[in-house]
Write a structure and sequence with these properties.
The complex is a heterodimer.
Chain A (H helix, E strand, L loop, with lengths): L1 E5 L9 H16 L4 E6 L4 H5 L6 E7 L7 H15 L1 E7 L2 H14 L2 E6 L5 E2 L2 E7 L4 E7 L4 E5 L14 E4 L9 E8 L11 E5 L10 H10 L2 E4 L1 H5 L20 E5 L5 H7 L4 E6 L12 E4 L2 H17 L1
Parallel strand pairs in A: 1-2, 1-4, 2-3, 3-10, 4-9, 5-9, 12-13, 12-14, 14-15, 15-16
Antiparallel strand pairs in A: 6-7, 7-8
Helix pairs in contact in A: 3-4, 5-8
Chain B lengths: L1 E5 L2 E3 L20 E3 L1 H15 L7 E7 L5 H10 L3 E6 L5 H12 L6 E5 L10 H9 L3 E11 L2 E8 L2 E8 L2 E5 L12 H7 L4 E5 L7 E7 L8 E3 L4 H10 L5
Parallel strand pairs in B: 1-4, 1-6, 4-5, 5-11, 6-10, 7-10
Antiparallel strand pairs in B: 2-3, 7-8, 8-9
Helix pairs in contact in B: 2-5, 3-4
The chains are: A alpha/beta, B alpha/beta.
Protein backbone atom coordinates (compact mmCIF):
# COMPACT_ATOMS: atom_id res chain seq x y z
CA UNK A 1 0.00 0.00 0.00
CA UNK A 2 1.14 3.52 -0.73
CA UNK A 3 0.14 6.91 -2.02
CA UNK A 4 1.33 7.36 -5.59
CA UNK A 5 1.94 10.85 -6.95
CA UNK A 6 2.49 11.61 -10.62
CA UNK A 7 5.07 14.39 -10.93
CA UNK A 8 5.19 16.10 -14.30
CA UNK A 9 8.46 17.67 -15.44
CA UNK A 10 9.16 20.57 -17.76
CA UNK A 11 12.17 19.73 -19.98
CA UNK A 12 13.58 17.56 -17.22
CA UNK A 13 12.97 20.02 -14.41
CA UNK A 14 10.38 20.07 -11.63
CA UNK A 15 8.69 23.24 -10.49
CA UNK A 16 6.71 24.45 -7.51
CA UNK A 17 3.63 22.60 -8.75
CA UNK A 18 5.51 19.29 -8.46
CA UNK A 19 6.54 20.05 -4.88
CA UNK A 20 2.99 21.08 -3.93
CA UNK A 21 1.78 17.72 -5.22
CA UNK A 22 4.37 15.72 -3.30
CA UNK A 23 3.71 17.74 -0.13
CA UNK A 24 -0.01 17.05 -0.50
CA UNK A 25 0.58 13.34 -1.17
CA UNK A 26 2.78 13.18 1.95
CA UNK A 27 -0.05 14.59 4.10
CA UNK A 28 -2.55 12.14 2.59
CA UNK A 29 -0.08 9.30 3.22
CA UNK A 30 0.20 10.45 6.84
CA UNK A 31 -3.60 10.23 7.20
CA UNK A 32 -3.44 6.68 5.81
CA UNK A 33 -0.31 5.68 7.71
CA UNK A 34 1.63 4.83 4.60
CA UNK A 35 4.39 6.29 2.41
CA UNK A 36 4.65 8.22 -0.85
CA UNK A 37 5.97 6.89 -4.12
CA UNK A 38 6.48 9.46 -6.85
CA UNK A 39 6.28 8.54 -10.53
CA UNK A 40 8.16 10.50 -13.14
CA UNK A 41 7.85 9.89 -16.88
CA UNK A 42 10.33 11.39 -19.33
CA UNK A 43 14.00 12.18 -19.08
CA UNK A 44 14.82 13.65 -15.68
CA UNK A 45 18.26 13.46 -14.05
CA UNK A 46 18.54 11.41 -10.84
CA UNK A 47 19.60 14.37 -8.69
CA UNK A 48 16.49 16.26 -9.84
CA UNK A 49 14.33 13.21 -9.02
CA UNK A 50 15.93 12.87 -5.60
CA UNK A 51 14.78 16.40 -4.75
CA UNK A 52 11.26 15.02 -4.32
CA UNK A 53 12.45 13.38 -1.11
CA UNK A 54 12.72 16.81 0.46
CA UNK A 55 8.94 17.14 0.18
CA UNK A 56 8.07 13.70 1.51
CA UNK A 57 8.53 11.11 -1.25
CA UNK A 58 10.15 7.93 0.08
CA UNK A 59 10.73 6.49 -3.37
CA UNK A 60 10.79 7.79 -6.91
CA UNK A 61 10.10 5.47 -9.82
CA UNK A 62 11.35 6.88 -13.10
CA UNK A 63 10.34 5.80 -16.55
CA UNK A 64 12.78 7.27 -19.07
CA UNK A 65 11.84 8.21 -22.63
CA UNK A 66 8.21 8.79 -23.58
CA UNK A 67 8.80 12.52 -23.81
CA UNK A 68 5.65 13.03 -25.92
CA UNK A 69 2.55 13.23 -23.78
CA UNK A 70 0.33 10.51 -25.21
CA UNK A 71 -2.59 10.14 -22.85
CA UNK A 72 -3.04 6.40 -23.45
CA UNK A 73 0.65 5.57 -23.01
CA UNK A 74 1.00 7.70 -19.86
CA UNK A 75 -2.19 6.29 -18.39
CA UNK A 76 -1.01 2.75 -19.08
CA UNK A 77 2.34 3.35 -17.40
CA UNK A 78 0.91 5.08 -14.32
CA UNK A 79 -1.75 2.36 -13.96
CA UNK A 80 0.88 -0.40 -14.05
CA UNK A 81 3.00 1.35 -11.44
CA UNK A 82 -0.02 2.06 -9.24
CA UNK A 83 -0.86 -1.63 -9.31
CA UNK A 84 2.74 -2.70 -8.69
CA UNK A 85 2.94 -0.35 -5.69
CA UNK A 86 -0.48 -1.38 -4.38
CA UNK A 87 -1.43 2.30 -4.39
CA UNK A 88 -4.68 3.16 -2.64
CA UNK A 89 -4.52 6.81 -3.62
CA UNK A 90 -3.10 8.41 -6.75
CA UNK A 91 -2.41 12.16 -6.64
CA UNK A 92 -2.23 14.15 -9.89
CA UNK A 93 -2.31 17.87 -10.65
CA UNK A 94 -5.57 19.39 -11.87
CA UNK A 95 -3.61 21.14 -14.63
CA UNK A 96 -4.07 20.37 -18.34
CA UNK A 97 -1.99 17.19 -18.10
CA UNK A 98 -3.82 15.97 -15.01
CA UNK A 99 -7.19 16.68 -16.57
CA UNK A 100 -6.10 14.51 -19.49
CA UNK A 101 -4.70 11.60 -17.45
CA UNK A 102 -6.87 11.36 -14.32
CA UNK A 103 -10.12 10.43 -16.09
CA UNK A 104 -8.47 7.72 -18.21
CA UNK A 105 -6.76 6.36 -15.12
CA UNK A 106 -10.08 6.42 -13.27
CA UNK A 107 -11.60 4.04 -15.79
CA UNK A 108 -8.51 1.84 -16.03
CA UNK A 109 -8.16 1.43 -12.25
CA UNK A 110 -11.89 1.71 -11.56
CA UNK A 111 -10.99 4.49 -9.16
CA UNK A 112 -13.25 7.36 -8.10
CA UNK A 113 -11.86 10.85 -8.72
CA UNK A 114 -11.93 13.76 -6.31
CA UNK A 115 -11.35 16.50 -8.91
CA UNK A 116 -9.81 19.93 -8.50
CA UNK A 117 -9.30 19.70 -4.75
CA UNK A 118 -7.99 22.61 -2.69
CA UNK A 119 -7.63 20.80 0.65
CA UNK A 120 -6.87 17.44 2.22
CA UNK A 121 -9.62 14.83 2.47
CA UNK A 122 -11.87 15.56 5.45
CA UNK A 123 -11.91 11.88 6.35
CA UNK A 124 -10.51 8.62 5.02
CA UNK A 125 -13.34 6.41 6.34
CA UNK A 126 -15.51 7.01 4.39
CA UNK A 127 -13.06 8.73 2.04
CA UNK A 128 -14.57 12.22 1.79
CA UNK A 129 -13.32 15.26 -0.09
CA UNK A 130 -14.64 18.79 -0.42
CA UNK A 131 -14.66 20.19 -3.93
CA UNK A 132 -15.73 23.41 -5.55
CA UNK A 133 -18.92 23.15 -7.58
CA UNK A 134 -20.93 25.59 -9.67
CA UNK A 135 -17.67 27.33 -10.56
CA UNK A 136 -16.85 28.26 -6.99
CA UNK A 137 -20.33 29.34 -5.94
CA UNK A 138 -20.54 26.34 -3.60
CA UNK A 139 -18.66 23.38 -2.17
CA UNK A 140 -19.75 19.75 -2.27
CA UNK A 141 -18.74 16.99 0.10
CA UNK A 142 -18.11 13.97 -2.05
CA UNK A 143 -17.57 10.39 -0.90
CA UNK A 144 -15.20 8.38 -3.12
CA UNK A 145 -16.63 4.88 -2.97
CA UNK A 146 -13.95 2.77 -4.64
CA UNK A 147 -11.00 0.93 -3.10
CA UNK A 148 -8.50 3.03 -5.09
CA UNK A 149 -9.00 6.79 -5.25
CA UNK A 150 -7.59 9.50 -7.52
CA UNK A 151 -7.20 13.04 -6.19
CA UNK A 152 -6.48 15.92 -8.55
CA UNK A 153 -5.07 18.96 -6.80
CA UNK A 154 -5.70 22.53 -7.95
CA UNK A 155 -2.49 24.47 -8.52
CA UNK A 156 -1.39 27.02 -5.86
CA UNK A 157 -3.87 25.67 -3.35
CA UNK A 158 -1.59 23.64 -1.10
CA UNK A 159 1.60 24.82 0.53
CA UNK A 160 4.99 23.36 -0.24
CA UNK A 161 6.29 21.63 2.89
CA UNK A 162 9.98 20.76 3.13
CA UNK A 163 10.61 17.76 5.33
CA UNK A 164 14.30 17.27 4.54
CA UNK A 165 14.01 13.61 3.58
CA UNK A 166 15.75 11.73 0.80
CA UNK A 167 14.15 9.53 -1.81
CA UNK A 168 15.54 6.43 -3.41
CA UNK A 169 15.34 6.44 -7.20
CA UNK A 170 14.38 3.29 -9.07
CA UNK A 171 14.19 2.83 -12.81
CA UNK A 172 11.19 1.10 -14.31
CA UNK A 173 10.84 -0.17 -17.85
CA UNK A 174 7.06 -0.08 -17.83
CA UNK A 175 5.69 0.42 -21.34
CA UNK A 176 2.20 0.79 -22.68
CA UNK A 177 2.21 0.42 -26.45
CA UNK A 178 2.80 2.87 -29.26
CA UNK A 179 1.99 6.55 -28.90
CA UNK A 180 -0.87 7.59 -31.19
CA UNK A 181 -0.22 11.29 -30.67
CA UNK A 182 2.40 12.82 -32.95
CA UNK A 183 3.77 16.20 -31.97
CA UNK A 184 4.36 18.35 -35.06
CA UNK A 185 5.37 21.60 -33.46
CA UNK A 186 5.75 23.27 -30.07
CA UNK A 187 5.60 26.96 -29.21
CA UNK A 188 6.81 27.80 -25.74
CA UNK A 189 6.30 31.08 -24.02
CA UNK A 190 9.70 32.34 -23.08
CA UNK A 191 10.77 34.96 -20.60
CA UNK A 192 7.25 35.41 -19.28
CA UNK A 193 5.80 34.36 -15.97
CA UNK A 194 3.10 31.78 -16.62
CA UNK A 195 -0.35 32.75 -15.46
CA UNK A 196 -0.93 29.46 -13.64
CA UNK A 197 2.42 29.64 -11.85
CA UNK A 198 2.27 33.32 -10.89
CA UNK A 199 2.14 34.45 -7.26
CA UNK A 200 0.87 37.85 -8.39
CA UNK A 201 -1.39 38.57 -11.36
CA UNK A 202 -2.29 41.95 -12.86
CA UNK A 203 -5.48 41.74 -14.88
CA UNK A 204 -7.24 44.30 -17.02
CA UNK A 205 -10.79 44.63 -18.31
CA UNK A 206 -12.80 46.81 -20.62
CA UNK A 207 -12.03 49.77 -18.36
CA UNK A 208 -8.59 49.87 -20.01
CA UNK A 209 -10.50 51.09 -23.09
CA UNK A 210 -8.14 49.64 -25.70
CA UNK A 211 -5.51 46.96 -26.21
CA UNK A 212 -3.11 49.84 -26.89
CA UNK A 213 -3.27 50.77 -23.21
CA UNK A 214 -1.88 47.41 -22.06
CA UNK A 215 1.53 48.92 -21.43
CA UNK A 216 0.41 50.17 -18.00
CA UNK A 217 -0.71 46.64 -17.04
CA UNK A 218 2.63 45.24 -18.19
CA UNK A 219 4.59 47.92 -16.33
CA UNK A 220 2.86 47.14 -13.04
CA UNK A 221 3.36 43.42 -13.67
CA UNK A 222 7.02 44.07 -14.39
CA UNK A 223 7.74 45.80 -11.05
CA UNK A 224 5.80 43.10 -9.18
CA UNK A 225 7.24 40.12 -11.04
CA UNK A 226 3.65 39.31 -11.93
CA UNK A 227 1.87 37.63 -14.82
CA UNK A 228 -0.71 39.53 -16.87
CA UNK A 229 -4.31 38.48 -17.43
CA UNK A 230 -7.56 39.88 -18.75
CA UNK A 231 -11.33 39.58 -18.58
CA UNK A 232 -13.40 37.83 -21.20
CA UNK A 233 -14.52 40.91 -23.20
CA UNK A 234 -10.86 41.81 -23.61
CA UNK A 235 -9.95 38.44 -25.12
CA UNK A 236 -13.17 38.35 -27.17
CA UNK A 237 -12.25 41.76 -28.62
CA UNK A 238 -8.84 40.38 -29.48
CA UNK A 239 -7.01 42.96 -27.35
CA UNK A 240 -5.23 40.07 -25.63
CA UNK A 241 -4.84 36.36 -26.50
CA UNK A 242 -7.39 33.91 -25.08
CA UNK A 243 -4.71 32.24 -22.93
CA UNK A 244 -4.79 35.34 -20.73
CA UNK A 245 -8.53 35.20 -20.10
CA UNK A 246 -9.22 34.42 -16.46
CA UNK A 247 -12.75 33.51 -15.49
CA UNK A 248 -15.23 30.71 -15.53
CA UNK A 249 -14.63 29.69 -19.15
CA UNK A 250 -11.00 30.80 -19.21
CA UNK A 251 -8.23 30.05 -16.76
CA UNK A 252 -9.04 29.33 -13.14
CA UNK A 253 -6.19 30.66 -11.01
CA UNK A 254 -5.30 31.04 -7.34
CA UNK A 255 -2.46 33.55 -6.95
CA UNK A 256 -1.55 35.22 -3.65
CA UNK A 257 -2.48 38.62 -5.06
CA UNK A 258 -4.81 39.52 -7.95
CA UNK A 259 -5.28 43.04 -9.30
CA UNK A 260 -8.56 43.52 -11.19
CA UNK A 261 -8.24 46.81 -13.06
CA UNK A 262 -11.18 48.12 -15.03
CA UNK A 263 -13.01 44.84 -14.52
CA UNK A 264 -16.65 45.11 -13.40
CA UNK A 265 -16.50 41.73 -11.66
CA UNK A 266 -19.24 39.72 -13.35
CA UNK A 267 -19.95 36.49 -11.53
CA UNK A 268 -18.30 34.56 -14.39
CA UNK A 269 -15.07 36.50 -13.98
CA UNK A 270 -14.97 36.11 -10.22
CA UNK A 271 -15.51 32.34 -10.62
CA UNK A 272 -12.06 32.12 -12.17
CA UNK A 273 -10.20 34.13 -9.56
CA UNK A 274 -12.14 33.79 -6.32
CA UNK A 275 -9.51 31.45 -4.86
CA UNK A 276 -6.93 34.26 -4.93
CA UNK A 277 -5.71 34.95 -1.41
CA UNK A 278 -6.02 38.73 -1.83
CA UNK A 279 -7.97 40.64 -4.47
CA UNK A 280 -7.50 44.33 -5.24
CA UNK A 281 -10.13 46.05 -7.38
CA UNK A 282 -9.64 49.29 -9.28
CA UNK A 283 -12.77 50.58 -11.00
CA UNK A 284 -14.31 53.97 -11.70
CA UNK A 285 -17.79 52.72 -10.80
CA UNK A 286 -18.18 52.58 -7.01
CA UNK A 287 -21.14 50.22 -7.45
CA UNK A 288 -19.26 47.68 -9.59
CA UNK A 289 -19.84 44.15 -8.24
CA UNK A 290 -16.09 43.52 -8.19
CA UNK A 291 -15.84 45.44 -4.88
CA UNK A 292 -18.18 42.93 -3.19
CA UNK A 293 -15.66 40.14 -3.64
CA UNK A 294 -12.44 42.10 -3.19
CA UNK A 295 -10.24 42.70 -0.16
CA UNK A 296 -9.07 46.18 -1.14
CA UNK A 297 -10.60 48.65 -3.54
CA UNK A 298 -9.88 51.96 -5.22
CA UNK A 299 -12.62 53.89 -6.98
CA UNK A 300 -10.87 55.60 -9.87
CA UNK A 301 -9.84 55.43 -13.49
CA UNK A 302 -7.56 52.43 -14.01
CA UNK A 303 -5.63 54.40 -16.64
CA UNK A 304 -4.57 56.87 -13.94
CA UNK A 305 -4.44 54.62 -10.87
CA UNK A 306 -2.26 51.89 -12.39
CA UNK A 307 0.71 54.13 -13.30
CA UNK A 308 0.50 55.78 -9.86
CA UNK A 309 0.49 52.35 -8.24
CA UNK A 310 3.49 51.27 -10.30
CA UNK A 311 5.40 54.32 -9.06
CA UNK A 312 4.31 53.77 -5.45
CA UNK A 313 5.50 50.17 -5.54
CA UNK A 314 8.84 51.19 -7.06
CA UNK A 315 9.23 53.71 -4.25
CA UNK A 316 8.30 51.22 -1.54
CA UNK A 317 10.78 48.73 -2.97
CA UNK A 318 13.57 51.28 -2.93
CA UNK A 319 13.10 52.04 0.74
CA UNK B 1 -16.64 11.74 -41.30
CA UNK B 2 -19.17 11.83 -38.49
CA UNK B 3 -18.84 14.20 -35.55
CA UNK B 4 -20.62 13.83 -32.23
CA UNK B 5 -20.67 16.59 -29.63
CA UNK B 6 -21.46 15.65 -26.03
CA UNK B 7 -23.54 18.33 -24.37
CA UNK B 8 -24.20 19.06 -20.74
CA UNK B 9 -27.39 20.80 -19.68
CA UNK B 10 -26.30 23.22 -16.94
CA UNK B 11 -27.76 26.14 -14.96
CA UNK B 12 -27.22 29.55 -16.53
CA UNK B 13 -23.86 30.88 -15.32
CA UNK B 14 -25.54 33.79 -13.49
CA UNK B 15 -27.71 31.45 -11.37
CA UNK B 16 -27.69 32.02 -7.61
CA UNK B 17 -27.29 28.45 -6.42
CA UNK B 18 -29.42 27.03 -3.55
CA UNK B 19 -29.40 23.61 -1.93
CA UNK B 20 -32.63 23.29 0.09
CA UNK B 21 -31.75 21.02 3.02
CA UNK B 22 -28.12 20.93 1.86
CA UNK B 23 -28.15 17.57 0.12
CA UNK B 24 -29.17 18.44 -3.44
CA UNK B 25 -29.14 21.34 -5.88
CA UNK B 26 -32.46 23.20 -5.89
CA UNK B 27 -33.58 23.43 -9.53
CA UNK B 28 -36.52 25.76 -8.83
CA UNK B 29 -36.60 28.69 -11.21
CA UNK B 30 -33.27 27.81 -12.82
CA UNK B 31 -32.65 28.72 -16.49
CA UNK B 32 -30.80 25.95 -18.33
CA UNK B 33 -28.19 26.39 -21.00
CA UNK B 34 -25.75 24.34 -23.05
CA UNK B 35 -22.57 24.01 -20.97
CA UNK B 36 -20.42 26.90 -22.29
CA UNK B 37 -17.44 24.76 -23.40
CA UNK B 38 -19.76 22.25 -25.09
CA UNK B 39 -21.38 25.14 -26.94
CA UNK B 40 -17.95 26.15 -28.27
CA UNK B 41 -17.38 22.51 -29.30
CA UNK B 42 -20.69 22.50 -31.18
CA UNK B 43 -19.79 25.79 -32.86
CA UNK B 44 -16.47 24.34 -34.07
CA UNK B 45 -18.24 21.17 -35.27
CA UNK B 46 -20.61 23.30 -37.37
CA UNK B 47 -17.71 25.29 -38.82
CA UNK B 48 -15.96 22.05 -39.80
CA UNK B 49 -19.08 20.69 -41.47
CA UNK B 50 -19.80 23.92 -43.35
CA UNK B 51 -16.29 24.10 -44.80
CA UNK B 52 -16.75 22.25 -48.10
CA UNK B 53 -13.11 21.15 -47.98
CA UNK B 54 -13.90 18.78 -45.10
CA UNK B 55 -15.52 15.36 -45.53
CA UNK B 56 -17.91 15.89 -42.60
CA UNK B 57 -21.25 14.21 -43.26
CA UNK B 58 -23.08 14.88 -40.01
CA UNK B 59 -22.98 16.48 -36.59
CA UNK B 60 -24.86 14.68 -33.82
CA UNK B 61 -25.40 15.96 -30.30
CA UNK B 62 -25.84 13.67 -27.31
CA UNK B 63 -26.67 14.31 -23.69
CA UNK B 64 -27.46 12.40 -20.51
CA UNK B 65 -30.50 13.87 -18.81
CA UNK B 66 -34.22 13.84 -18.18
CA UNK B 67 -36.93 15.36 -20.34
CA UNK B 68 -36.08 18.77 -18.91
CA UNK B 69 -32.85 18.65 -20.97
CA UNK B 70 -34.82 18.65 -24.25
CA UNK B 71 -35.06 22.45 -24.71
CA UNK B 72 -31.25 22.52 -24.55
CA UNK B 73 -31.04 19.77 -27.17
CA UNK B 74 -33.50 21.65 -29.41
CA UNK B 75 -31.29 24.69 -29.06
CA UNK B 76 -28.31 22.63 -30.25
CA UNK B 77 -30.36 21.42 -33.22
CA UNK B 78 -31.33 25.03 -33.94
CA UNK B 79 -27.64 26.00 -33.93
CA UNK B 80 -27.20 23.41 -36.67
CA UNK B 81 -26.72 19.85 -35.38
CA UNK B 82 -28.36 17.27 -37.65
CA UNK B 83 -29.77 15.00 -34.98
CA UNK B 84 -29.80 14.51 -31.23
CA UNK B 85 -29.70 11.65 -28.77
CA UNK B 86 -30.86 11.94 -25.16
CA UNK B 87 -29.99 9.15 -22.75
CA UNK B 88 -32.97 9.16 -20.44
CA UNK B 89 -31.51 9.31 -16.95
CA UNK B 90 -30.15 11.87 -14.51
CA UNK B 91 -26.45 12.74 -14.64
CA UNK B 92 -25.24 11.36 -11.30
CA UNK B 93 -21.47 11.48 -11.51
CA UNK B 94 -18.78 11.82 -14.18
CA UNK B 95 -18.17 8.07 -14.41
CA UNK B 96 -21.87 7.29 -14.85
CA UNK B 97 -22.30 10.05 -17.46
CA UNK B 98 -19.26 8.82 -19.42
CA UNK B 99 -20.59 5.24 -19.19
CA UNK B 100 -23.99 6.27 -20.57
CA UNK B 101 -22.39 8.30 -23.36
CA UNK B 102 -20.09 5.39 -24.26
CA UNK B 103 -23.04 3.00 -24.54
CA UNK B 104 -25.06 5.48 -26.58
CA UNK B 105 -22.38 6.27 -29.17
CA UNK B 106 -20.08 3.24 -29.32
CA UNK B 107 -21.64 1.45 -32.30
CA UNK B 108 -22.48 4.51 -34.35
CA UNK B 109 -19.19 5.01 -36.19
CA UNK B 110 -18.33 8.48 -34.96
CA UNK B 111 -14.90 9.69 -36.05
CA UNK B 112 -14.54 12.83 -33.95
CA UNK B 113 -16.01 12.97 -30.46
CA UNK B 114 -16.02 16.44 -28.91
CA UNK B 115 -16.63 17.34 -25.29
CA UNK B 116 -16.07 20.54 -23.36
CA UNK B 117 -13.10 20.47 -21.01
CA UNK B 118 -15.29 21.10 -17.99
CA UNK B 119 -18.92 21.50 -17.00
CA UNK B 120 -19.89 24.70 -15.24
CA UNK B 121 -21.91 22.84 -12.58
CA UNK B 122 -19.72 20.07 -11.17
CA UNK B 123 -16.39 21.31 -12.62
CA UNK B 124 -14.72 17.89 -12.71
CA UNK B 125 -13.11 17.92 -16.19
CA UNK B 126 -13.45 14.15 -16.22
CA UNK B 127 -16.14 13.03 -18.67
CA UNK B 128 -14.20 13.39 -21.95
CA UNK B 129 -11.16 11.43 -20.79
CA UNK B 130 -13.28 8.74 -19.15
CA UNK B 131 -15.31 8.35 -22.33
CA UNK B 132 -12.12 7.96 -24.39
CA UNK B 133 -10.78 5.26 -22.07
CA UNK B 134 -14.11 3.42 -22.11
CA UNK B 135 -14.15 3.52 -25.92
CA UNK B 136 -10.42 2.70 -26.01
CA UNK B 137 -9.62 5.57 -28.39
CA UNK B 138 -6.99 8.34 -28.15
CA UNK B 139 -7.85 11.57 -26.38
CA UNK B 140 -6.39 15.03 -26.51
CA UNK B 141 -7.16 17.53 -23.78
CA UNK B 142 -7.12 21.33 -23.56
CA UNK B 143 -7.76 21.62 -27.29
CA UNK B 144 -7.88 25.19 -28.61
CA UNK B 145 -7.69 24.43 -32.33
CA UNK B 146 -8.90 21.53 -34.50
CA UNK B 147 -8.78 20.91 -38.24
CA UNK B 148 -9.24 17.82 -40.39
CA UNK B 149 -6.47 16.54 -42.64
CA UNK B 150 -7.39 13.33 -44.49
CA UNK B 151 -8.22 10.72 -41.86
CA UNK B 152 -6.18 12.54 -39.23
CA UNK B 153 -7.12 15.42 -37.00
CA UNK B 154 -4.66 18.25 -36.48
CA UNK B 155 -4.97 19.69 -33.02
CA UNK B 156 -3.56 22.60 -31.09
CA UNK B 157 -3.43 21.79 -27.40
CA UNK B 158 -2.42 24.08 -24.59
CA UNK B 159 0.42 22.84 -22.43
CA UNK B 160 1.81 24.54 -19.35
CA UNK B 161 3.68 27.45 -20.81
CA UNK B 162 2.85 27.09 -24.47
CA UNK B 163 1.08 25.25 -27.22
CA UNK B 164 1.67 22.04 -29.12
CA UNK B 165 0.46 21.03 -32.57
CA UNK B 166 -0.34 17.35 -32.54
CA UNK B 167 -1.73 14.95 -35.08
CA UNK B 168 -3.97 12.03 -34.09
CA UNK B 169 -5.77 9.45 -36.24
CA UNK B 170 -9.53 9.09 -35.91
CA UNK B 171 -11.54 8.01 -34.03
CA UNK B 172 -10.62 10.21 -31.11
CA UNK B 173 -11.99 12.28 -28.25
CA UNK B 174 -11.00 15.96 -28.10
CA UNK B 175 -11.88 17.90 -24.96
CA UNK B 176 -12.03 21.50 -26.02
CA UNK B 177 -11.58 24.80 -24.28
CA UNK B 178 -11.62 28.52 -24.93
CA UNK B 179 -10.13 29.37 -28.31
CA UNK B 180 -11.57 26.38 -30.23
CA UNK B 181 -14.16 28.73 -31.72
CA UNK B 182 -14.16 32.49 -31.58
CA UNK B 183 -17.63 32.89 -30.16
CA UNK B 184 -20.42 30.46 -29.43
CA UNK B 185 -22.99 30.47 -32.21
CA UNK B 186 -26.52 31.70 -31.58
CA UNK B 187 -29.50 30.00 -33.21
CA UNK B 188 -31.22 31.99 -35.96
CA UNK B 189 -35.00 31.96 -36.45
CA UNK B 190 -34.71 29.66 -39.48
CA UNK B 191 -32.64 27.23 -37.43
CA UNK B 192 -35.20 27.29 -34.64
CA UNK B 193 -38.00 26.45 -37.09
CA UNK B 194 -35.96 23.64 -38.68
CA UNK B 195 -34.94 22.23 -35.30
CA UNK B 196 -38.53 21.27 -34.54
CA UNK B 197 -38.48 18.69 -37.31
CA UNK B 198 -35.02 17.26 -36.64
CA UNK B 199 -34.76 13.83 -34.98
CA UNK B 200 -34.27 13.72 -31.21
CA UNK B 201 -33.92 10.09 -30.18
CA UNK B 202 -34.58 9.15 -26.58
CA UNK B 203 -32.68 6.03 -25.57
CA UNK B 204 -33.08 4.14 -22.31
CA UNK B 205 -30.28 4.30 -19.75
CA UNK B 206 -27.72 1.50 -19.64
CA UNK B 207 -26.71 -0.28 -16.43
CA UNK B 208 -23.95 2.00 -15.23
CA UNK B 209 -22.65 2.50 -11.72
CA UNK B 210 -21.41 5.61 -9.95
CA UNK B 211 -18.05 5.82 -8.20
CA UNK B 212 -18.85 8.86 -6.07
CA UNK B 213 -21.69 10.15 -3.89
CA UNK B 214 -22.35 13.86 -3.54
CA UNK B 215 -23.49 13.83 0.07
CA UNK B 216 -23.88 17.51 0.95
CA UNK B 217 -23.39 21.04 -0.33
CA UNK B 218 -22.26 24.23 1.40
CA UNK B 219 -22.10 27.87 0.39
CA UNK B 220 -18.76 29.60 0.93
CA UNK B 221 -18.41 31.89 3.95
CA UNK B 222 -19.30 35.50 3.04
CA UNK B 223 -16.33 37.71 2.33
CA UNK B 224 -15.59 40.56 4.77
CA UNK B 225 -16.30 44.02 3.31
CA UNK B 226 -13.82 45.51 0.88
CA UNK B 227 -11.43 48.05 2.42
CA UNK B 228 -11.53 51.19 0.29
CA UNK B 229 -8.47 53.34 -0.37
CA UNK B 230 -8.53 56.83 -1.88
CA UNK B 231 -7.41 57.01 -5.53
CA UNK B 232 -5.02 59.84 -4.61
CA UNK B 233 -3.32 57.76 -1.97
CA UNK B 234 -2.09 54.60 -3.66
CA UNK B 235 0.88 54.53 -1.25
CA UNK B 236 -1.61 53.54 1.46
CA UNK B 237 -2.69 50.56 -0.66
CA UNK B 238 0.93 49.49 -1.05
CA UNK B 239 1.36 49.77 2.71
CA UNK B 240 -1.74 47.65 3.37
CA UNK B 241 -0.61 44.99 0.90
CA UNK B 242 2.83 44.89 2.49
CA UNK B 243 1.97 45.09 6.17
CA UNK B 244 -1.64 43.98 6.58
CA UNK B 245 -2.28 41.40 3.85
CA UNK B 246 1.44 40.58 3.65
CA UNK B 247 1.24 39.70 -0.02
CA UNK B 248 3.89 42.06 -1.37
Amino acid sequence: MSVLVYTENWDGVFKKLSFELVSYAAKVAEMMETSVTAVSIGDVADDELAKLGNYGAAKVVKVDGNTTLDNQVYTGIIAQLAEAEGAKVVVISHNNTGKALAPRLSVKLKAAVGAGLIALPSSTEPFTVSKKVFSGKAFANVVLKTDVKILTLAQNSFEVIEVGGTATVEASTATAGEAKTTVKDVQKQTGKILLNDAEIVVSGGRGLKSGDNWGIIEELAEVLGAATACSRPVSDEGWRPHEEHTGQTGKIIAPNLYFAAGISGAIQHMAGISSSKCIVAINNDADAPVFESSDYGIVGDALKVLPALTEAIKEAKNK
Amino acid sequence: MKIVVCLGNVPDTTTKVKFGDGTAFDKTGVQWIINPWDELALTRAMELKEDAGNPVSSVTVVTVGGKDAEPTMRKALAIGADDAIRVDTDARDAYAVAGQLAEAIKDKGFDIILTGIESSDYNGSMVGGMLAEMLDVPSVSAVSGLTISGSDVEITRDIDGGKEQVSVATPLVATVQKGIAKEARIAAMRGIMMARKKPLAVVPAAEVETLTDFVSFELPAPKPPCKMVDADNVAELVDLLQNEAKVL
